[in-house]
Amino acid sequence: QLKLEDYKDRLKKGEALNQDQLDAVEKYDEVVHNLEFAKELQKTFSGLSQDLLKAQKKAQRRESLLKLEAEKKKLRTILQVQYVLQNFTQEHVQKDFKGGVNGAIYLPSKELDYLIRFAKLTCPERNENL
């Protein structure tokens, strides 16, 4: 654009320009228009790029929250299962299941022993001092 402005100034001063320079001066308005269009296009692309980045960040945050919720749900389930299994190690609970009383179903001793052993293997001892 600067070169074209220089040609235009030289032409106004009466200097002789070659044919290529004269052709360039004739297309000055077209070049300026195209430059303005390119600048607007660049602004539009920049805005779209920023919008896309924001949308990606938002989607990543949403995905992270969903993963965190899924992990919490897994942990809750594990803790619930551990709680149930730990109850099988209590004497009064074992009596209820052996007799099928107090809302407990009847479990044969062999099956109850399996559950007790499984509970001891999968549920760590709790340190009450912590």
UniProtKB/TrEMBL annotation:
Coiled coil: none annotated. One of its GO terms (molecular function) is signaling receptor binding. Residues 61-129 form the Caprin-1 dimerization domain. It holds the Pfam family Caprin-1_dimer. It comes from the Eukaryota. GO terms for biological process: positive regulation of canonical Wnt signaling pathway. InterPro entries: Caprin, Caprin-1_dimer. GO terms for cellular component: cytoplasm. Belongs to the caprin family. This is CAPR2 protein.
